[in-house]
């Protein structure tokens, strides 16, 4: 299955989850130890469950990826080499190293294009007032073990910071240490939101939850409650 999972809803919010799956479609051999697909390089751990829970809590539509980021990275420009990664956090992906232009184009057409077409369709159908992009990050990168990642949650944004500027104090008021463009910067890693939110002038939050908080149902429920309440407050303030 390569088509994204679509959840229906009526709230003026659209939820997307670019890296919610570790599935590898039949016929694709990444040439890696399958155990790596269970780690952060193969999937944003916990994001499928969080995106689904948040969609139901808000009664919001959602577009959730069903293919591993190691097959196609849906949050990257398809014209860039990183769209089909050759390596991730120190692990080489042999099956992606020698793709012909034709093979690369076929893979992108089968996975990247339908995902972003589905987001376009959801935006057109629901006309959301806010887009939420759900990601998670590992507490520590293997390639940067000395770099601390102390934030339980971070908000990513590029040039449009309307929603993050409102959400940062809302989350901080809960006693959370919130990363502002941490652990990554939305100035460089923001393809999906650049394409579907920035390009349309839609407010958005690029949400990064540290994945040690999403490894069980209790953690997912905890973050769902926080993000649902924050979203309700944001919608009131954005009007």
Automatic annotation (TrEMBL):
<dbReference type="GO" id="GO:0016787">
    <property type="term" value="F:hydrolase activity"/>
</dbReference>
<dbReference type="InterPro" id="IPR007709">
    <property type="entry name" value="N-FG_amidohydro"/>
</dbReference>
<dbReference type="Pfam" id="PF05013">
    <property type="entry name" value="FGase"/>
</dbReference>
<keyword id="KW-0378">Hydrolase</keyword>
<dbReference type="InterPro" id="IPR011227">
    <property type="entry name" value="UCP029730"/>
</dbReference>
<protein>
    <submittedName>
        <fullName>Putative N-formylglutamate amidohydrolase</fullName>
    </submittedName>
</protein>
């Amino acid at each position: 299955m390569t088509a994204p999972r679509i959840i229906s809803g009526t709230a003026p919010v659209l939820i997307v989850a670019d890296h919610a799956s570790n599935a590898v479609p039949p016929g694709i051999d990444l040439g890696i130890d399958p155990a790596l697909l269970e780690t952060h390089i193969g999937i944003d751990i916990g994001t499928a469950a969080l995106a689904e829970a948040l969609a139901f809590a808000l009664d919001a539509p959602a577009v959730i990826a069903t293919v591993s980021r190691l097959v196609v990275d849906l949050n990257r420009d398809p014209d860039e080499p990183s769209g089909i990664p050759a390596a991730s956090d120190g692990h080489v992906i042999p099956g992606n190293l020698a793709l012909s232009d034709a093979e690369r184009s076929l893979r992108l057409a089968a996975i990247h294009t339908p995902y972003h077409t589905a987001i376009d369709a959801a935006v057109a159908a629901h006309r959301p007032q806010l887009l939420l992009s759900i990601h998670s990050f590992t507490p520590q990168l293997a390639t940067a073990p000395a770099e601390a990642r102390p934030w339980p949650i971070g908000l990513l944004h590029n040039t449009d910071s309307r929603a993050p500027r409102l959400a940062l104090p809302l989350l901080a008021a809960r006693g959370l240490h919130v990363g502002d463009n941490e652990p990554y910067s939305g100035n460089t890693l923001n393809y999906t939101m650049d394409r579907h939110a920035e390009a349309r002038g839609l407010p958005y939050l690029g949400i990064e939850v540290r994945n040690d908080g999403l490894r069980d149902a209790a953690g997912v429920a905890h973050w769902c409650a926080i993000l649902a309440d924050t979203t309700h407050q944001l919608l009131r303030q954005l009007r």
